[in-house]
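Hi all, long-time lurker, first post. I run a small reading group and we've been trying to get comfortable going from sequence to structure in the token notation. Rather than ask abstract questions, I figured I'd post a concrete chain and ask someone more experienced to write out its structure so we can walk through it together at our next meeting. Sequence below, copied exactly:
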Amino acid sequence: MAVPLRRTLIALHRATCNNLKSADGWVDVRQPHPLVVPVRGKKRHFIPPAVGIKEKTKADPEARARAAGLVFRQQYVERSINISCTAGIFDPYIPPEGDARLSTLSREGLKQRTEQLRQSAASQLAIRKIKEHDPLFNTKTFPELAQDIFIQAHMALTQFNKEKLHSLVTERCYPEMTRGNRLKTIRWSFVESLEPPRVVHARCPDMVTKTNLYGQVTLRMHSRQILALYDRFGRLLLGSEDEPKDVLEYLVMERHVVNPYGRWRLHGKIVPAWAPPKDPIMKTVLIPGPKLKPGEDFDALQFEVPKPQSVQWSK
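-- Answer (accepted) --
Happy to help. Here is the structure in token form:
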């Protein structure tokens, strides 16, 4: 029963197709073109990653390189060091409180005198070791040289002369002096020396090997200086150009003594714990006011600055 029905349907289909083909010659019948309608699917906020995709991305480059006959260079995660200077101040000098000598009859005075004797003995050994590599080093003439280096370094800082500043300060001291000076104007000058500078401390540490020696000499310098710091708009942030101040500083000079071409450079400063705090920087803010026309002056309007309302804050 199924076979005759199938034969009948096939014959009917062929007859229909022949009729349509013969009708196309008499009637201009155009077949409709397919219509494409864009349909937006569901938006996925999270697409799950493929399983093991991280392992494949890491292993594929190495596997492909091995297959091509290439060898990957091993990467070492190391920290670069600079052997032209040390990373800090070795055995820093501890200035006596108030920079005064206490009575040896008291307990504090006796402790201070004992500490000075211990430091002076270690300083004499360090000075002797420095003179072995630098015969021209002398504790009587060195303070003047160190003060001259200090003045030249600060003058190069005010002029933003990076090349000269690198030759006068160490790689450790350079970022400490230049940090925060961008878009600012510095006015500094050395007025006079209130007391002659003198050597109070000396050390000769080594780094990496016992023969790689560095000389560190600490000087006490009491001078009068002028400092004024302006922002990029010319507003005064710190200090004054008319009022000099007395400054007591402990400077640390360093030199790579085993290097025949080494030179003494400014390495840092020692700030004692009893030193007074620094003056805060005066910050300026914009106060809202009236919009001025090109020919108007703010003082002529007699505008009163509104005072902020008190607000009760709760924890």
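A couple of things your group might point at:
The beta strands are 185-203, 206-207, 209-213, 215-230, 236-255, 265-269.
Helices lie at 2-26, 53-68, 107-133, 142-158, 162-168, 173-178, 298-301.
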